[in-house]
Amino acid sequence: MIRVFIGYDPKETVAYHVLVQSILKNASQPIAITPLALHTLKEIYNRPLNEKRSTDFTFSRFYIPYLCNYTGWALFLDSDMLFDADIAELWQLRDETKTVMVVKHDYTPKNGLKFLGNPQTNYPKKNWSSLMLLNCSKCKALNLNYLQSATGLMLHQFKWIESEASIGNLPITWNYLVGEYEPNADFKNLHFTLGGPYFKAYSTSDYAEQWHQTFLETIYCQDSAIQLT
Questions:
Q1: What is the rounded distance in angstroms from the CA atom of residue 62 to the CA atom of residue 58?
Q2: CB 4 within 8 A of CB 23
Q3: Going by C-beta distance under 8 Å and a sequence separation of 6 or more, which residues neighbour residue 14?
Q4: Nearest CA-CA partner of 82 in 159, 201, 193
Q5: Using CA atoms, how far apart are residues 62 and 123, in angstroms rounded to an integer?
Q6: Per-residue pLDDT tens for 180-209?
Q7: Is the pLDDT of residue 227 over 90?
Q8: Alpha carbons 17 and 214: distance in angstroms, whole number
Q9: 3-state SS string over the chain?
Q10: Are 101 and 158 in contact (CB under 8 A)?
Q11: Residue among 34, 125, 46 nearest 74 (CA)
């Protein structure tokens, strides 16, 4: 069973569901998908609500090892993604010697703002945590006390991992940053990090047509009574 956790934000609900559809239609193995919705995490999520964050799942992703009882592996995905390959291929890249595996982006954001006018903050290891294969048994530093007090940079820059050597590297094709990288047919997972095609300002972004096609698949029903306006 492939355990997948996806960030959920009510400001972009459609992103979550379209990502799920893109995963399911390409998958060759059973998948357990869990949305990281804050209203379902009330008993454990105690971070102040007034922190600057662009999405509801900015910090909740780091609660995954706790939710998995610090056992086995789990995959985290930002919701503004779109799979075009079998998620089992990504799952097979797990390395038991690593604590976490990510795409190690090395770039400077092209724009100062992203979706809904959120500031585009630049920092080392930016977007590394947007897709993570977590070896939960090695993530015990992410206990609830630490999760409540750690700063955003401590979490997203993996300060909770003792050695950089414990951070494994995944191919860039699994977290391809739309709008930051030049269009390329060689991708397995698109990441609309600047803003998804579901936002008006990004409705014609690179690969928008592919996202909209998957949206239509998501709402498909044989002999449907759904009318799009």
A1: 9
A2: yes
A3: 198, 215
A4: 193
A5: 18
A6: 998 888 899 999 999 999 999 999 999 999
A7: no
A8: 10
A9: CEEEEEECCHHHHHHHHHHHHHHHHHCCCCEEEEEECHHHCCCCCCCCCCCCCCCCCCCHHHHHHHHCCCCCEEEEECCCEEECCCHHHHHCCCCCCCCEEECCCCCCCCCCECHHHCECCCCCCCCHHHEEEEEHHHCCCCCHHHHHHCCHHHHHCCCCCCCHHHEEECCHHHCEEECCECCCCCCCEEECCCCCCCCHHHCCCCCHHHHHHHHHHHCCCCCCCCCCC
A10: no
A11: 34
Q: Which of 67-71, 96-100, 179-183 has the lowest mean pLDDT?
A: 179-183
User: What is the rounded CA–CA span in Å between residue 138 and residue 183?
Assistant: 36
* Pick from 40-54, 83-97, 114-128, 155-169: least confident: 114-128
The Cα 172–Cα 141 span in angstroms is: 27
Give pLDDT tens digits for 115-149. Answer: 555 655 656 788 999 999 999 999 999 999 999 99
- Distance, CA of 134 to CA of 71 (rounded, Å): 10
In order of 82, 175, 197, 215, 221, the CA distances from 209 in angstroms are: 12, 18, 8, 10, 20
Give the separation between CA 56 and CA 66, rounded to whole angstroms: 18
How far, in Å, CA of 11 to CA of 96, rounded? 36
Q: What's the CA gap between 88 and 77, in Å, rounded?
A: 14
Closest Cα to residue 106, out of 165, 169, 158?
169
